[in-house]
Amino acid sequence: WSSDVCSSDLIGIVDNNNIRKLTVNECLRLFGFPKNYKLDLPMNKIYNLFGQSVAIPIVREISKRLIQNI
Protein backbone atom coordinates (compact mmCIF):
# COMPACT_ATOMS: atom_id res chain seq x y z
CA TRP A 1 0.00 0.00 0.00
CA SER A 2 1.26 3.49 -0.78
CA SER A 3 -0.05 6.98 -0.36
CA ASP A 4 1.27 10.49 -0.89
CA VAL A 5 2.23 12.46 2.17
CA CYS A 6 2.66 16.23 2.20
CA SER A 7 3.44 18.60 5.02
CA SER A 8 5.27 21.88 5.35
CA ASP A 9 8.64 20.12 5.51
CA LEU A 10 8.07 16.80 3.73
CA ILE A 11 6.73 15.66 0.41
CA GLY A 12 6.88 11.91 0.52
CA ILE A 13 5.26 8.61 -0.08
CA VAL A 14 4.45 5.79 2.29
CA ASP A 15 6.35 2.79 0.95
CA ASN A 16 6.56 -0.53 2.82
CA ASN A 17 5.39 1.13 6.06
CA ASN A 18 8.14 3.77 5.79
CA ILE A 19 7.91 7.35 4.59
CA ARG A 20 10.50 8.33 2.03
CA LYS A 21 11.04 11.76 0.57
CA LEU A 22 10.07 12.07 -3.09
CA THR A 23 12.95 12.97 -5.38
CA VAL A 24 12.87 16.29 -7.20
CA ASN A 25 12.10 14.41 -10.44
CA GLU A 26 9.20 12.58 -8.79
CA CYS A 27 7.84 15.91 -7.55
CA LEU A 28 8.20 17.46 -10.99
CA ARG A 29 6.19 14.61 -12.56
CA LEU A 30 3.54 14.73 -9.82
CA PHE A 31 3.06 18.45 -10.32
CA GLY A 32 2.80 18.13 -14.10
CA PHE A 33 6.13 19.51 -15.27
CA PRO A 34 7.61 18.14 -18.53
CA LYS A 35 10.33 15.48 -18.25
CA ASN A 36 13.12 17.83 -19.32
CA TYR A 37 12.19 20.62 -16.87
CA LYS A 38 15.04 21.68 -14.57
CA LEU A 39 14.96 23.85 -11.47
CA ASP A 40 18.14 25.80 -10.75
CA LEU A 41 17.51 26.36 -7.04
CA PRO A 42 18.81 24.99 -3.76
CA MET A 43 17.05 21.79 -2.65
CA ASN A 44 15.34 23.42 0.33
CA LYS A 45 13.81 26.06 -1.98
CA ILE A 46 12.66 23.40 -4.46
CA TYR A 47 10.89 21.34 -1.79
CA ASN A 48 9.43 24.52 -0.28
CA LEU A 49 7.97 25.44 -3.69
CA PHE A 50 6.39 22.00 -4.08
CA GLY A 51 5.05 22.09 -0.53
CA GLN A 52 3.22 25.32 -1.32
CA SER A 53 1.95 24.27 -4.76
CA VAL A 54 -1.10 22.57 -6.19
CA ALA A 55 -0.68 19.47 -8.37
CA ILE A 56 -2.38 20.66 -11.57
CA PRO A 57 -2.89 17.14 -13.06
CA ILE A 58 -4.78 16.12 -9.91
CA VAL A 59 -6.91 19.28 -9.89
CA ARG A 60 -7.67 18.73 -13.59
CA GLU A 61 -8.91 15.17 -12.99
CA ILE A 62 -11.00 16.15 -9.98
CA SER A 63 -12.51 19.03 -11.98
CA LYS A 64 -13.39 16.74 -14.91
CA ARG A 65 -15.17 14.33 -12.59
CA LEU A 66 -17.06 17.09 -10.83
CA ILE A 67 -18.22 18.57 -14.15
CA GLN A 68 -19.35 15.12 -15.38
CA ASN A 69 -21.57 14.79 -12.33
CA ILE A 70 -23.34 18.13 -12.75
Write the layout of secondary structure elements.
Blueprint: E1 2-6, E2 11-15, E3 18-21, H1 24-30, H2 43-51, H3 56-68
Describe the protein's architecture and organization.
The protein has 70 residues and is of the alpha+beta class. The chain contains three helices and three strands; from the N terminus they run βββααα. Strands 1-2-3 form a three-stranded antiparallel β-sheet. β1 (2-6) and β2 (11-15) form a beta hairpin. The model has no long low-confidence stretch (mean pLDDT 82).
Question: Keywords, please?
Answer:
70 residues, alpha+beta, 3-stranded antiparallel β-sheet, globular
Low-confidence stretches: none
Overall, the morphology is: globular
| Amount of beta strand | 15-25%
The computed structural class is: alpha+beta
Q: How are strands sequenced across the largest beta sheet?
A: 1-2-3
Helix-residue proportion: 40-55%
Biggest sheet, in brief?
3 strands, antiparallel
What integer value in Å does the Rg equal? 14 Å
- Average residue pLDDT: 82
Give the termini separation: 32 Å
Please write the string of helix (H) and strand (E) elements: EEEHHH
Number of DSSP helical runs: 3
What's the number of extended β-strand segments? 3
Question: Could you provide a short overview of the structure?
Answer:
The protein has helices spanning 24-30, 43-51, 56-68; strands spanning 2-6, 11-15, 18-21. The N and C termini lie far apart (32 Å). It is an alpha+beta fold.
